[in-house]
Amino acid sequence: MVVEHTIDAFERNSHIDEIAIVSNPMLISEFEDIVLRNGWKKVKKILKGGKERYDSSLSAINAYASDDVNLIFHDAVRPLVSQRIINDVAEALHHHHAIDVAIPATDTIIDVEGDFIHSIPERSRLKRGQTPQAFAITTIREAYDKALKDPQFKVTDDCGVVKKYLPDQPIFVVNGEETNMKLTYKEDTYIMDKFFQLRNAGKELG
């Protein structure tokens, strides 16, 4: 399963002390079986997610509210996250309280109003966001505390929450990788399978 590859990447990383899976409540028992089947030792919590993405983030934040920890959030549908990316994110947490992972934008990005171009931002300044995203728990908790008091609260990811509600908090960017792709469309399965084949071939040659 895709999620097994994803969790295994963090299970194998020496910087990761503990893993919490945030799941659809209907799948918690299935995840319990998956953890047992794989023999993972670092998975300590299986938490209930929510309707929106931020509900799942809040579930993890609340689960560790009494602990002085760093939290690393990662999409389950990015199973090809490399050990290099996880290592760089973990190392960056020694110096920064908010971290994103991104890769350069290779296409021209256009800002539109309706069906017409409004502006064309300078591509050299643009990057495509990936995960993991990482935070000192005090930082991400404070950002969400402020966000939940805003009746107009609407963001797409956790770094967006920090950027909007803690504007003075710098967000450091770790270099991502093209292979750290997100499984979104049916066609992505074929691309991802090819990346898996190439990675496995590299292991065999090594």
How would you characterize the overall build of this protein?
With 206 residues, the chain is of the alpha/beta class. It has a single domain (2-205), classed as Spore Coat Polysaccharide Biosynthesis Protein SpsA, Chain A, CATH 3.90.550.10. It is built from 7 helices and 8 strands, in the order H-E-H-E-H-E-H-E-E-E-E-H-H-E-H. Strand 1 (19-23), helix 2 (28-38) and strand 2 form a beta-alpha-beta unit. Helix 5 packs across helix 6. The two termini are 25 Å apart. The mean pLDDT is 92.
Number of extended strands: 8
CATH class: Alpha Beta
Q: Determine the strand fraction and express it as a percent band.
A: 15-25%
Estimated helix fraction: 25-40%
Short description:
The chain has 206 residues and is α/β, with parallel strands linked by helices.
Key features?
alpha/beta, 8 strands, Spore Coat Polysaccharide Biosynthesis Protein SpsA, Chain A, single chain, 206 residues
List strands and helices in order, with pairings.
Blueprint (H helix, E strand, L loop, with lengths): L1 H10 L7 E5 L4 H11 L4 E6 L4 H11 L6 E4 L9 H10 L5 E7 L6 E3 L2 E4 L7 E10 H11 L10 H8 L6 E4 L12 H18 L1
Parallel strand pairs: 1-2, 4-8
Antiparallel strand pairs: 3-7, 4-7, 5-6
Helix pairs in contact: 5-6
